[in-house]
Amino acid sequence: MKHPPTELLAVATRVDEALAALFVEERRTWAELNPELDVPLADLADFVAGGGKRIRPAYCHWGWVTAGGDPSGDGAIAGGCALELLHAFALIHDDVMDGSPTRRSSPTVWARFIERHRDGAWHGESRRFGEAAAVLVGDIAIVMADRTLGNADAEVRRVWDSLRTELNMGQYLDVIGTAQGEVSVADARTIMRHKTAGYTIVRPLQLGAALAGRVDLAAKLAAHGMPLGMAFQLRDDMLGAFGEPARTGKPVGDDLREGKPTVLLALAREAADDSQRAVLATVSASALANGGPEMDDDNIAAIQEVMVETGAVAAVEAEIERLLATSLEAIDDLPDIGGSHRALRALADYVVDRDT
Q1: Could you give the CA distance from residue 14 to residue 16 in angstroms, rounded to a whole number?
Q2: Gap between the Cα atoms of 69 and 92, Å rounded
Q3: What gap in Å lies between CA 49 and CA 257, rounded to an integer?
Q4: If you ran DSSP here, which 8-state letter would residue 201 be given?
Q5: How many Cβ atoms from other residues are within 10 Å of residue 109's Cβ?
């Protein structure tokens, strides 16, 4: 297992402590009004504390340091907390949209509420209740994210607003791509840029720099962050198709079961012959089955084999290496302050070579 670098872990510890304190106060406030209100907040607190890698806060911190912010100061902590709360919003809603019962080897928020509904023999449909409650938990998360960022100046707010808008637009393209069943390689890359690359690395770096008052670094930070963010998503696509459940916390081939419009799948379709395309078509058939039987492990194995045979896997691995090299070269154009070059290289190595 690839271990996170110290440049990430040190930031994660500080952000975790700040988030824990934030939830103590938030839960106390609302539980005093009505104890029922502690339930969604407790679920959100558990979700936020439940194993996230804290990549986005790390990039916010190192964007701050690169821009001249005090490495030991708290200037980027609020930004890091806001990013984690925004990430929770996105994942909780994503699990509802995908119908995913588990994340990080635990029941998803909507699945927890379904069980509460069933255990309590409450009125109405349990799934509908679970989805509605989880949507509200996600909404609470994004409101808390905005509040946590505080009275940011106009430049910080501009980066933050761009990040939130791009995330949702990319997510919509992901949803409609899954529904339509086939997405071109070019469209899959567009989703990748907006849903993941900007949201995971570019905007967090720029947010940290904006907090330090160096918005002029935005383009140079993007030159490093965009190729790296795309490599990050390509690695995520590989894990979604081939990752081990014990490490990813999701069933094997989870992206294939959900019909995710990935570059990996698009490349395989583009290179497939007729018989191979028939195998790959089961991805769309499963995603569009509207409650029909899911693909079994044999189906997943057959799709994985086609992805290897068509050269899609090799092409994605080669692209990851190219994107990583481009990203590392761009670091030289950034200020090297407080060990920021070393940290950015360590983070880059981690995000493209992880197994979770």
Answers
A1: 5
A2: 32
A3: 27
A4: I
A5: 29
pLDDT value of residue 284: 60
Calpha distance 115→109 (Å, rounded) = 10
Of 87, 99, 78, the closest CA to residue 257 belongs to 99
- Residue of 192 and 135 predicted with greater confidence: 135
Q: Reduced to 3 states, what is the DSSP secondary structure of residue 287?
A: helix
Of 239, 256, 173, 161, residue with least CA distance to 199: 161
Note the pLDDT of residue 286.
52
Q: How far apart, in Å, are the Cα atoms of 220 and each of 165, 238, 253?
A: 22, 28, 36
pLDDT at 50: 86
DSSP per position, 101-123: -EETTEE-HHHHHHHHHHHHT-S
* 328-332: Cβ within 8 A, 24+ apart: 330/220, 330/223, 330/224, 330/227, 331/224
Residue 212 burial (10 A CB sphere; 0-12, 13-18, 19+): buried
DSSP-assigned beta bridge partners for residue 126: none
CA distance linking residue 105 with residue 54, whole number of Å: 18
pLDDT (mean) for 199-216: 97
Spatial distance between the Cα atoms of 326 and 330, rounded to a whole number of angstroms: 6
Region 240-257: what's the mean pLDDT?
77
CA 308-198-200 angle, to 5 degrees, is 75
**Residue pLDDT, tens place only, 291-343:** 444 678 888 999 999 999 999 999 999 999 999 999 999 999 999 999 999 99
Q: Which residue has the tokens 């570019």?
A: 202
| pLDDT per residue as tens digits for the range 86-134 | 999 999 999 999 888 888 778 999 999 999 999 999 999 999 999 999 9
Q: Looking at residue 288, what is its pLDDT?
A: 45
Burial class (CB in 10 A: 0-12, 13-18, 19+), 278: exposed
- Can you tell me which residue has the tokens 């799709």? 303
Tokens encoding 277: 């395309």
